[in-house]
Structure formats: structure tokens, C-alpha cells
Write a structure and sequence with these properties.
This protein is α+β, with helices and mostly antiparallel strands. It is about 55% helix and about 15% strand. It contains 14 helices and 14 strands.
Length: about 425
């Protein structure tokens, strides 16, 4: 009996009991759908985060004070460390220290709320160079203008606010030229960001930026920085620039042992690798849990196939009586199991892809996220292979049991 004939016979057997076949593949469908959904969501999340990181520019390097955090409890050290000061900025600006540097700016984080005539809102308040962010992130003022370098040097009380901040404080009224209060200090709004949303870890719609010099003197009362942002000439020189930055800051701080660094450098490449590792590990973990469900589904397939073998005992006897060999019977039931699980895999792939697409639309339309739909082709191929393999492995025992039946006893079976 040829493989083609065996396959046709198996297909007829599957079609004969449609309800049972549907119940048999249900576990496989759920398992493969879950795998595709998890992989698609994982890839979508990774792509979303990496797009945000990439928006900050691969040629941008961030230096933060304190030792690099190894856990949530270490973040406070970064916020309260005072190791980055103006002398460090001046040393970094020297061409002989960091030849690849083309721009550098410092930034401070201000805690507190913003108010205007009784209206209060708690945004993210940032002291920094709005020009630097504008150039790196391609930002434009939706209203008014950005403050100038001269206003930074003269510690002017000026601010640029996000669209959400404008709506909360001014409603539909004009914001430019109005005076807002930050920690009881008045700041004149000179510009409003065009609606931007989340970009490179900053939500510019909920941001208030003031000159870092003004923030230090009037809002924080400190002479150190929470971040130093550096732009180099090209992404290809980032590693070399990082080495120069570290050497310069160690010299500035009198550090000879790198283990005792009171600063740490963050590059986009490092962030990308960390994000990819974390999301990849989480996806694998979730997929492994789903894989257990596939094993359970495989046991279900085996049980249903055993029931099928028992119910079709007379059919097995008749086939053997007209010349079918044990090998033919074994192949028939193996093919049936593989057809069932393979079909379940295909349905699961289609259903998983469809649910992932719907999920991305919902997040984009209603959550305000630019969630990219990503169909994991590799996972789809693997899912089809695994589902078919499950049918092969868990179909062997029922198929062998069918093949070993005696034709005489099988024909007598009631």
C-alpha cells in the first residue's frame, strides 16, 4: 500500500468522526495559538521599546552619577549622587579629551508641581538644554519658541511645556507669555511642544523643561547634575568615545580603580542589548509554560486515539483480512494523529496571528501606543513542526496497539 493511499485512508478516518477530531485538536489549537500570541506580543513590545530608544539617537551617550544600579534599590543612589559637576562638563568639552564629541549638555531632575491661577498639575520637570533635545529628537515648538543658550547662561526664568501640561493649566487659552509657578518661583512660558507623546523614555506632552542653570539655582539648590548627555560624530565611534569619556571623568575625579567609579555610562547599544535579553528571556519562559500545555494536549490526543482504535477494531480486522499489513495499519493511525495535530497547528497559527493583529490595533487605537504588529514567522514554522511532532510521538502507542491486533479477534469484536 503506497504512502499516498495510506494518507487518503487516514484522511477519510479523520473526516468520518468530525466532532471527535475537533475535540482532539482543541488542546493543540490553544497551545499553538498561545505560543504565536506570546511570541508576537514579545516581538511587538521589543520593537516598540527599541523604536523609542532608537529615537534618542544611536550617537547619543548618557553619563549618570553614582555606581551603575544592579537592582531597584540602587536607583536612589543615582538620584542623590553629586559626582557630576560643571568641571566635568568643561573637561569633556576639551577636544584632546574626547575628540569625537560634537555636543554636550547637562540636565537635572526637579520634583514638584506646576501651578497657574489655582490650577495645579504634577508633570515631569526637567532642567536641561531644550536645543539639545530638539536637535537629537527632531522636536519643534507647536506654539512660541524654545529658549536660547543665552537664556541658559543668564539663568532666565523661562519654560517650555508639553501639550498635556498646557491643557491642564490653561485649557483652551493661550499659554505662551503666561507665568506659571514651580516651587513658588515664577517662570514665563515661552513655548509649547508640538504634540509628541512618548519618545526616548520622555513623554514630551507631560514635560516641563527649564534651563538647567535656573533649575540648579532656584529650584534644586544644587551644583551637580543628574545626567550628562553627549552627542558624538557617528554611531561607529561610540565605543571609542565611551573609553575617552570614562578616562576623562576618572582623571577629573581622581579615580585609578575602575571598580570605584562614581559614574556610569549608558549607550543605546547597551540599552538595546538589555531590553532584548530581558524580553527574550520572558518570552522563552512564557513559551515554555505553553509547551507544557502542548504535552498535556499530546496526552489527550493519545487518549482519543486509543478510544478510536477500540471503536474501530472491526475495521482493523477487515483491513487485515483483505491484505493490509501491520505496517499499513501503523502508518494509517500515525498519519491520522499527525493530520489532526498538524491541522490544529495551522489553525492555531492563523488564530494566534489574528489575535495578535487585533491586540496591536486595540493598543494603537485605545492605549495611544504605536504598537507595531509583528508576526513571528520562525515561531509559526516551529509551531507547525512541534504540533506535527506531538502527533507523531503521542500517536505511536495507539498506532502500535492497532497494528498488533489479531485479524480474527478483531473481526469477532462486538
Amino acid at each position: 500500500m503506497s504512502v499516498k493511499q495510506t494518507f487518503k485512508t487516514s484522511l477519510i478516518g479523520v473526516k468520518t468522526n468530525k466532532s471527535r477530531s475537533a475535540l482532539t485538536i482543541l488542546g493543540i489549537v490553544i497551545g499553538i495559538t498561545s505560543i504565536i500570541l506570546m511570541m508576537s506580543i514579545g516581538q511587538g513590545a521589543e520593537n516598540l521599546i527599541l523604536d523609542e530608544v532608537a529615537g534618542f539617537g544611536a550617537e547619543t551617550i548618557v553619563v549618570r552619577p553614582g555606581q551603575e544600579p544592579t537592582g531597584p534599590t540602587d536607583i536612589g543612589e543615582t538620584l542623590f549622587s553629586d559626582s557630576l559637576k560643571e568641571r566635568d562638563i568643561e573637561m569633556l568639552k576639551r577636544k584632546e579629551n574626547v575628540p569625537d564629541l560634537i555636543d554636550v549638555t547637562s540636565a537635572v531632575i526637579v520634583t514638584g508641581s506646576v501651578s497657574f491661577e489655582g490650577e495645579t498639575y504634577r508633570p515631569t520637570i526637567f532642567g536641561g538644554s531644550v536645543r539639545f533635545f530638539a536637535e537629537v529628537l527632531n522636536l519643534e515648538p507647536g506654539e512660541g519658541r524654545f529658549y536660547t543658550e543665552n537664556e541658559i547662561r543668564t539663568r532666565a526664568n523661562v519654560a517650555v511645556i508639553g501639550t498635556k501640561v498646557r491643557e491642564e493649566l490653561f485649557g483652551n487659552d493661550e499659554a505662551v507669555g503666561k507665568l506659571i509657578k514651580i516651587k513658588d518661583k515664577k517662570f514665563r512660558v515661552v513655548g509649547v511642544f508640538a504634540k509628541k507623546g512618548q519618545t526616548a523614555f520622555y513623554n514630551f506632552d507631560e514635560l516641563v523643561i527649564v534651563p538647567q542653570t535656573t533649575a540648579q539655582v532656584y529650584l534644586t539648590g544644587t551644583n551637580h547634575y543628574h545626567e550628562v548627555l553627549i552627542k558624538v560624530s557617528d554611531p561607529s565611534v561610540v565605543k571609542r568615545a565611551v573609553h575617552d569619556i570614562e578616562a576623562t571623568l576618572r582623571e577629573s575625579h581622581g579615580i585609578t580603580d575602575p571598580e570605584k567609579d562614581d559614574f556610569f555610562v549608558v549607550t543605546q547599544e547597551g540599552v538595546v542589548q538589555q531590553i532584548s535579553t530581558i524580553i527574550g528571556a520572558l518570552t522563552i519562559f512564557l513559551s515554555s509554560i505553553v509547551a507544557i500545555a502542548l504535552v498535556v494536549a499530546g496526552v489527550g490526543v493519545m487518549n482519543i486515539m486509543l478510544v478510536s482504535v477500540t471503536e474501530r477494531t472491526r475495521e482493523i480486522g477487515l483491513r487485515k483480512a483483505v491484505g493490509a499489513t501491520n505496517k499499513n495499519i501503523l502508518a494509517q493511525f500515525l498519519f491520522e494523529a499527525m493530520i489532526l495535530t498538524g491541522t490544529g497547528g495551522i489553525i492555531g497559527i492563523i488564530l494566534g496571528g489574528l489575535l495578535s493583529f487585533i491586540f496591536s490595533i486595540i493598543l494603537t487605537q485605545y492605549a495611544g501606543l504605536s504598537w507595531p504588529f509583528s508576526f513571528p514567522i520562525g515561531a509559526a514554522v516551529l509551531g507547525l513542526f512541534v504540533s506535527t511532532l506531538v502527533g507523531l510521538i503521542f500517536g505511536i502507542y495507539p498506532a502500535r496497539k492497532a497494528a498488533k491486533k489479531s485479524p480474527i479477534e478483531a473481526l469477532r469484536y462486538e
